[in-house]
Design a protein that fits this description.
This protein is α/β, with parallel strands linked by helices. Helices cover about 40% and strands about 20% of the residues. The protein has 2 domains: about 200 residues, inorganic pyrophosphatase (n-terminal core) (Alpha-Beta Complex); about 130 residues, Diaminopimelate Epimerase, Chain A, domain 1 (Roll), CATH 3.10.310.30. Helix 5 runs antiparallel to helix 6. The two termini are about 35 Å apart. The structure holds guanosine-5'-monophosphate and manganese (II) ion.
Length: about 350
């Protein structure tokens, strides 16, 4: 972040403001962790802060401190719109284009509030007055830590804020194993533990609260897994019928695509999940090495994200989506097969 921006934001936050904090639609651990961390920090500093999420999120995130104060735009629309209208400042976290907030897109783009972006995705739109955008960061949570530090307030990070930040770093780094995890990330995580984040308990809350049905759904996903070894690719499908059979709940498919990527010699993995209500196939893509799933998602599946983790969608059937995916692979032959060291 530029020094002059930090100075301006400091001046801006010197007096109490009405502040709304928004993450992307279908918020994940980084989205909820970062918005709540910022919420606690701003509230501590006498601001009227509110977190508004576009829609619901998985139950394994509903224990995070401050969860009870989160407002949902899709079910509390009027209240949320009044807050957005009255906001002096809107922080947009863990996304960088308004369309990523789904139905909140128009109310956000019409709002006169000053916008501050904190985000680590590629290709940001330029709606924000102050942009803290850094694709090298492991997570938006890591950036919120830096943001508070830049404002000279690292000492204000207490156990509550540390817990929120820890969640997003942990979930976005696959528990500190993705290549986005740096020594700095580990230094920050160490500091968060020193400040009171209970690492083992946080891990249990997020990863060890599975339902029996969620594991049965995972079993179905794994038996649907297909390998295309010539392109070092593996993919999984889940139809709406299969989701219904195992009483699918939001978050149940989180992380499933990583099983496809864990197979020996596979560097590109996809999961295709049918959503009959929205009339779409939701796609998650993961890769190892320099194969950019962000570019792949942008070019073919109306999506985006990071080099090694991206998402997208189609309005085709599940079968046609898979057929399209397979038909594209030959044009990526070189990119998928050039590096035998991974
Ligand atoms: P996931 O596969 O876990 O839903 O998302 C992986 C990454 O890609 C996340 O950083 C997420 O924000 C991004 N992403 C997922 N779906 C989309 C999409 O439809 N459009 C864009 N631009 N990014 C996406
Ligand atoms: Mn993130």
């Amino acid at each position: 972040m530029k020094n002059e921006d930090i100075k301006s934001i400091k001046e801006l936050l010197a007096t109490p403001k009405n502040i709304v904090i928004v993450p992307h639609k279908n918020p994940d651990g980084d989205a909820i962790g970062s918005t709540l961390a910022l919420y606690h920090y701003l509230s501590k500093n006498k601001h009227q802060a509110k977190v508004i999420v576009p829609n619901d999120y998985p139950s394994f995130l509903k224990w995070i401190p401050g969860n009870e104060h989160i407002l949902k735009y899709d079910s509390q629309t009027e209240e949320c719109e009044a807050l957005i209208q009255a906001a002096d400042i809107i922080f947009t976290l863990d996304f960088n284009a308004f369309h990523r907030t789904g139905d909140m897109e128009s109310v956000l783009s019409q709002s006169a509030a000053l916008k501050i972006m904190i985000d680590h995705h590629q290709a940001p739109d330029d709606y924000a007055t102050y942009m803290f955008s850094d694709v090298s960061m492991s997570s938006t949570c890591e950036m919120v830590y830096h943001f508070i530090d830049y404002l000279g307030d690292r000492s204000q990070i207490d156990a509550t804020i540390a817990t929120c930040i820890y969640v997003g770093i942990m979930t976005d780094t696959g528990s500190f194993r993705f290549s986005s995890t740096t020594s700095k990330t580990h230094q920050i995580v160490a500091d968060l533990i020193d400040k009171g984040a209970n690492n083992s308990q946080i891990h249990n809350h997020v990863y060890d609260t599975n339902s029996y049905e969620r594991l049965q759904l995972l079993g179905q996903a794994l038996s649907n897994l297909e390998i295309i070894s010539g392109y070092r690719t593996a993919y999984i499908t889940l139809s709406q019928d299969e989701l219904n059979r195992y009483n699918y709940k939001k978050g149940d498919t989180e992380g499933v695509v990583n099983y496809a990527l864990s197979i020996n010699n596979i560097i590109f993995a996809a999961i295709f999940i049918e959503d009959k209500k929205e009339g779409i196939i939701k796609i998650s893509l993961r890769s190892k090495g320099d194969f950019s799933v962000n570019e792949f998602a942008r070019a073919h599946f109306n999506g985006g994200g990071h080099t090694n983790a991206a998402g997208g969608r189609t309005e085709l059937s599940l079968e046609d989506t898979v057929e399209k995916f397979i038909s594209i692979l030959p044009s990526y032959n070189d990119a998928l097969n050039h590096d035998e060291t991974i």
